[in-house]
Amino acid sequence: MSGPGGPPRVRRIGVICKPRAEFGPQVTELLVWIQHQGRSVLVERAVAPHFPSIPAAPREELFAECDVILVLGGDGTLLGAAREAAVAGLPVLGVNLGSLGFLTGTPFPEARTLLSALFAGRVRLDERLLLTAEVVRAGRTVARHHCLNDAVINKGALARVVSIDVSVDGRFLTTFRADGLILSTPTGSTAYCMAAGGPILTPGLACLALVPICPHTLTHRPLVLSADAEVVVTLEADHQDLHLTVDGQEGIALETGDRVVVRRSEHTVRLVHDPAYDYYALLRTKLGWGSPLQGLA
């Protein structure tokens, strides 16, 4: 591997994909093509039956032994892999097998072109902010998660407004009375954050968004904070069925008196992009900006 700021020297590629995804022969052909470029390939053991001709290994070995993680799938698949890759210090290349994603923005037909650029050292590494969310209960940390998109505190089945005390860098901010609270990175700002009325933040910004979900007080608006801010969320009121959810994939049930501490992680996610990658073009395509309105005369 080269230094953290430059393109990696690739000898071995680890492949992560959904265990139940339907793989056509073209995916196997892509992995065989990588081998023909003089690089070794390891697939996750969970999907080994789909690729009988490709060596397989446990998931943790991919992150310990490979130089780059290749994700085949959608944004959800990449989110899970990216958190692990960040801790291991590995860049991630996302190839989309379905509709265009914000993170897996490379369509499958363009995979060989981007991989060729990677092997030649002609790619851009897009560094993304990662957050750490800790649950502190009775003075003890009972859960710790990394999040690339967001940390969300929300309700379960009961439709009840909850009271959430929020402090920033040791200073009390406010008590939100809302359906929940989102703490989003710039990467996650086009996900739940945007759906809840939060701002779209370009990925290079060093900030996070604090977004109440359906606040009962109309003056409670989304707030953009420095990425170096430490946000402490305290559940003082007697609430039941509250959960902390990370990237929509991991979570823990919360109890009265719990403190959720969200801060910048010491790790970052590095996404492999073509040098011509255009985030604004991705926004236009994904959100339909500039397209004719449908259903209007």
Count of extended strands? 18
CATH-derived topology of the largest domain: Tumour Suppressor Smad4
Radius of gyration: 21 Å
What is the string of helix and strand elements?
EHEEHEHEEHEEEEEEHEEEEEEH
What is the overall silhouette? globular
Strand order of the largest sheet: 3-2-1-4-5-6
Report the portion of residues in β strands.
35-45%
CATH-wise, what's the superfamily of the largest domain?
Probable inorganic polyphosphate/atp-NAD kinase, domain 2
Architecture of the largest domain, CATH level 2? Sandwich
Unreliable spans are: none
Distance between the termini: 57 Å
The percent of residues in helical segments reads: 10-25%
How many domain units? 2
**Structural class from helices and strands?**
alpha/beta
Report on the architecture of this protein:
The structure is a single chain. The protein is of the alpha/beta class and 297 residues long. The chain folds into 2 domains: 126 residues, Rossmann fold; 137 residues, Tumour Suppressor Smad4 (Sandwich). Helix content is 19%, strand content 38%. The strands form 3 sheets. It has a 6-stranded parallel beta sheet, sandwiched between helices. Strands 8-7-18-15-10-11 form a 6-stranded antiparallel beta sheet. α3 links the parallel β4 and β5. The mean pLDDT is 91.
